[in-house]
User: Fold these one by one.
Assistant:
Number 1:
Amino acid sequence: MPRSATKQSRAVPEPSLGLRVVRWLLFRLGRAGIAIQPYLIVREGTGPAPPTIALDPRFSSGFIGPDDTPELVRVEPGITVEQCVDRFQRGLLCYAVKDGSRIVAKMWCDLEEFNFPTCFRKLESHEAYLFNAYTDPTVRGHSLAPFMRQQCYAALRARGRDTFYSYTDYFNTASRRFKYKLGAVDESLRLHVSLFGHLSRTFTLRR
């Protein structure tokens, strides 16, 4: 049985010296060809909803489409036009917050697949997988990230999707706390091990 979000937020370890040493060791192993990645499968939007966040009226939010591809590429370094086109063609949704015509926060939603490679599966008709959330650093401090997630949950529920999944790097304590504050719970703790890019296996350490 997943613990409550409140209890989980207290259980998130501080970035102590020991934690930093473990991360350094995993980094060194990765450089040697032994990749070890601990991560959490998270179910979001459970439990009582936190108070609705009110934003400056200059911001707007909603699902966007292919016409916004240039803005998506601009706002997040690393994503390409080809990736955006492919995602829209496959039916993925993108929820965004805009400042005028400028995208300042966004998150992708897959309604067909839990597309994280090490725990890939088809989704049920009531589920959604949330990934690649990003907020422009120039507007951080305006509560855009929690607002976007709250509004996205509501928009997906209106489409019949009421169970939202994501994954979180186990060592990303800031992300874990952020999701717990919005009512997330951990479904499982997993460990992915890859040897020299050829042999790989994922272990479930805790449910």
Number 2:
Amino acid sequence: MKIIETKVVFDKISKKSRGNLDRAINDIQSSIKAVVWPIGSRKFTIFPGKHANGVKPIKKESMNYLDKNGWVLEKRMSLVDGMRPGPIDAVKEFSDGKLFAMEWETGNISSSHRALNKMALAIFRKQLMGGVLVLPSQALYPYLTDRIGNIKEIEPYIPLFQTLPIEEGFLSIIVIEHDDESDQVSKIPKGTDGRALK
């Protein structure tokens, strides 16, 4: 899997925390590059059929990489009273106690907004030092589950997040894309989540 773009929503990280930020970003980038299809190959090749591929299996190798490198998977955080957001895909805790989050989009565009809202609120409340949302590119999007969250639909809202009065924190979106296309590879399986096939 390759990274084609990183959109920084805001970067207000102090010098003393810059090393932790760099380590978190390096881990995330390495975890994305570890994602291959078919499993066991050296690159990510997708079957080029409209909405033909699932999305949840794509992030599995990324999560495995982060798990092996000290990240905690499916971490729940209490953000505000009465709010019970879903767990964050992966969280890294540094020696100074600060936390960094990564969300890999496997839901629809509403899920993308929730992921950004969740991380932005946690940064605002100083519960996270930063976070990254991973989204498919416009080239990858048509081959995945219909209505999967994607960069084209979330990008217009970036200026809204940039108005937040953040004292210190980092938020970005990493845009991912397949390395190749071939109708000779198997389709990525779709799981079930309610009625939706993912």
